[in-house]
Structure formats: C-alpha cells, structure tokens
Amino acid sequence: MLPELSPTLIRRRLTSLFPADLIEGIARERDAVQRHRKIDITMLVWSLILGFAVDGETRSIAAFQRVYQTATNKKVSRSSFYDRFTPQLRDLLSDLLAHALEEVAAPHTAVPQLTQFRDTMLADATVFRLHRLLTAFPATHQDQSGAQLYLVYNMTKRTLAQFSLTDERTHESSQFRTGNWLRGRLFLFDLGFYSYRRFALIDENDGFFVSRLKTNTNPRIVGERRKWRGRAISLTGSHLQEQLSKLKRKHIDVTGEFEFKRRQYGEKQSLATVEFRVVGVRNEDTDDYHLYVTNLPGEFTPEQVAALYSLRWKVELLFRELKSRYGLEKFETGDEAIAELLVMAALLTLTVSRALLAVFQEIDPDVEYPEERWATTLRSVAQPVLADLALALGHPPPNLPELVRREARQPERSRLTLNKRVAQAFNPEVWP
C-alpha cells in the first residue's frame, strides 16, 4: 500500500475543503442555523452531499433524514428535519459550491499540446423534469415543468467552472458569458452554442474554439491552408457546399468567410464578416466529411482538431454521471427553493467527487481513474465516509440493532399489514 493512503486521507481532504467552522460561519450569515440546534448543520450539509451518492437511496427528504440519522445516531422528527429545507439552506449550499469552485484543482491532461492553453472548457446544458406544480420552471410542453442545468466544465482541472439553473424554455447559449476571462482558453462547443458573433468575441478576446460546422453552412472559401499533390481541385473563391460532393481527399483545411449580425444597438444592427478555419476529416464508412469551424492555428492538423472535438463527450458523461449516479432526475418537489437546493447538493456531490479524485491522482499519477468508475466507487463508500466524518465531529457510532428496529418497523400502528388485514376479516373483534 502506498504510504500516503492513510485511513484518514478522505476525511482530511473533505474537512479541508469544507471545514466545520466555514460551514457554521456561512450558516450563521445565511440564517440557516436554529438556536436550539436539534440538527447539526455541518452533518446536515455532509448528509446532503454524500446522501446524493449513497447507492440505492432516493432523493427525497425522508431518504436524507435516514442518511443523517444513520451517521449521527440521533433521531429527529420528520417535521423538524423537513423544516430545515429552506431558502436559507439553499443559499448556504450555493455559497459552499462557490467556495469549492474557487479552489484550484491539480492540472491533469493526457494531451501535452493542451498545456499551451490556460484551460480546456466544455460548455453544455441538460434538461430534466420537475414537479408539474413548479410553475417557476415552465417546460416547452404545457402542463409540465422542466429545468435546464447549464455547465462550463474545466476539463484541465476536472472541475466545474460555471453553472446556472434556468427553466427549460431558456436557450442554453444565452447563459454563456463573454469577456476577458476567455483569454488563452480553448472552448469546445456543440451546435447549441453555434454563433459566429460568439466565435468572433472569443477570437477578439484571444481565446480559442472548436465547433461542429452546421450542415447547411456554406461559407465562401477565401484561401487554402494546405497544398495538394497532382491536379487537385482549387477551392479558393468557391463556396463550400458546391465542392463537397466533388472532393475525395482525406482532409479539408481552408479559410472560410462568414457573415453575421452584430449585437443590436437601439434600432441599428450592423452586418460583419469574419474569417475562420474550416476543417474536414473524411469518414470512409459514410463517404462524407465531419466538418469543424475553429480558430486554432495550423500547427493543429485536421485529425488533431477532430480528436480535440471528441473531448466534448466528457461533458455528456458528466451529465450522465449527475443523472444516473447522483440521481439528479430522481426527486420531485413542488417547492422551488427545495428543487434548487437539491440541484446545489448534486453539484456539490460532483465537486467533492472531483476533489477526492484529484487527491488520488496526485498520489499515484500513473494510474487512470475513469470518471464514471470513480463515481460508482464513491457511491459504494459514501455511507462509511459519512460515518467517519460523523465520528470526527463528535457523533457516536450508531447502535445498529436500534437503528434497524427504528427504520424497519411500521411507523403507524393503525396501518395494518396484509396478514393483519386478512386476520381482521376473520376475527374483527380481535382486530378492531
């Protein structure tokens, strides 16, 4: 065993990420602490974060209550626990998430060429259903509610960089912010963020981007970036769509001219043109090209541009992890603040997962930890990790027989089991 893998390693990383005095301090500022302190706010936060990872649990308040009681060996009433799910607790989780995102994770990249960029960023959004009574989150269909979670994922540091929660009808691309923070960063976009004005702003701010080219895009080709042997077709001066069916070459690498509308000021909206690189890699199976638009310099070959774009799949895996591993879609509540609170908790679970992953990669950099396999492992150990935190915070270990008895028994004496209902039919005087 590596000497760094001490039994307290995980606990030390978690408590350094969110020290108890930090949680309690923010809780007081946000008025999320009750004076009688029936519930330990620090353990409540950890029960929400690690409760999202507990394998087999639903994402209900009752489930989080079970997780909390198991870890702390403290019985709390349903009403007392439910009353803590307030806008103040939501704000506490939001502040903790902002704190975690400010921590610099250890850089990790298997592609040496990416070190020339400050970060490689993946922007995308996912939609998930909410309780139909949550009218603050209207869906695209009537009589439904839906939320859209927008993320910018820093692939270099394996952590979230930005996020926002909107209703389903809000277009995902409206959440992407431009400005000088783009400088030196590489952005990989899907077609939901396709906008020449956005690409131009990234370029003007000395950032870089790669996006799939829309299938109906037909830029005028103003220059070729590679020379071809023999009697190659000249593309300069023509339009891309006119030439695609004629080409048999393995790659396309040209400069295209694109026209777009600048942002409207008052009643005026000017047209502008910009030149970007258009790259194509031929797919022999389908006998067509995978086309990309980018401002990456020529040192990146067409194959490398296509390979870089494939990294965008990482954000799809991230959403799948949030939904399938941490149950982002498995909660229903008609309370807007609780819905937002649970989303914050899910994002904190993801952030904590990545913080722990960075520790293990630093200890053993030659070992590869696939994110989804890591998430599955975290789910399997979430309850013991929470128990270890509870012990460190002064909570005694649970009395397991008492815990089983409390959780497994019928909560209401008047609610008869099937056997007793049958018995009542034969002996009504015994079972009133």
Write the layout of secondary structure elements.
Layout: H1 9-17, H2 20-29, H3 41-51, H4 61-72, H5 78-82, H6 87-102, E1 120-130, E2 145-154, E3 159-167, E4 186-189, H7 196-204, E5 208-212, E6 220-224, H8 240-244, E7 251-261, E8 271-283, E9 288-294, H9 302-310, H10 313-325, H11 336-363, H12 371-392, H13 400-408, H14 418-426
Parallel strand pairs: 1-4, 4-5
Antiparallel strand pairs: 1-2, 2-3, 5-9, 6-7, 7-8, 8-9
Task: Give a quick summary of the entry.
It holds the Pfam family DDE_Tnp_1. The protein has 432 residues and is α+β, with helices and mostly antiparallel strands. It is built from 14 helices and nine strands.
* SSE run: HHHHHHEEEEHEEHEEEHHHHHH
Mean pLDDT: 86
Name the quaternary structure.
single chain
Uncertain runs? none
Family: Belongs to the transposase 11 family.
InterPro entries: RNaseH-like_sf, Transpos_IS4, Transposase_11
Protein name: IS4 family transposase
Domain Transposase IS4-like: 117-350
What would your notes on this structure say?
Strand 4, helix 7 and strand 5 form a beta-alpha-beta unit. The longest helix is centred in the last third of the chain and has 28 residues. The chain is of the alpha+beta class and 432 residues long. Helix 3 runs antiparallel to helix 12.
